[in-house]
Amino acid sequence: MIYTFKFQDEVYRVDLEEEGDQIKVAIDDKEIPVEFTQIDPNLYSIIIDNASHSIGVLKRGKTLEIFINGELYEFE
Questions:
Q1: Distances 45 to 6, 7, 56, 75 between C-alpha atoms, Å
Q2: 50 φ, ψ to 5°?
Q3: Alpha-carbon dihedral angle through residues 8, 50, 36, 60, given to the nearest 10 degrees
Q4: Exposed / middle / buried, residue 64 (Cβ in 10 Å: 0-12, 13-18, 19+)
Q5: For the chain (length 76 residues), average pLDDT per consecutive 10?
Q6: pTM of this prediction?
Q7: CA 76 to CA 66: how far, in whole Å?
Q8: Burial of 50 from C-beta contacts in 10 A (0-12 / 13-18 / 19+)
Q9: DSSP character for 62?
């Protein structure tokens, strides 16, 4: 599934492809394998390059608020 996100006035093309408990994430054609588990509707545990992260996701209209490692990021 392909998404287009705007972050800090830059537009990114993100392609997500699920494969079991992994998801292939391609951002502007750079592929990143990610393992993930959905903990609740707005909270995910992901592993990228053997590092574990908890990610909170909140959708408000056309805006996604993503909280990761103590930082809040807003995407359109």
A1: 23, 22, 9, 19
A2: 65, 15
A3: -20
A4: middle
A5: 87 85 82 86 89 90 88 88
A6: 0.70
A7: 11
A8: exposed
A9: T
Instruction: Give the separation between CA 32 and CA 60, rounded to whole angstroms.
Output: 26
Beta-strand relationship, 51-60 and 2-7: unpaired
A 10 A CB-CB count for 37 gives: 10
Residues whose CB falls within 8 Å of the CB of residue 55, separated by 6 or more in sequence, listed in order: 43, 44, 45, 46, 66, 67, 68
Q: Which residue, 25, 23, 16, is CA-closest to 37?
A: 23
Q: Please report the pLDDT score of residue 41 as a whole number.
A: 92
Burial class (CB in 10 A: 0-12, 13-18, 19+), 15: middle
Dihedral angle at the C-alpha atoms of 25, 41, 38, 27, nearest 10 degrees?
Answer: 10
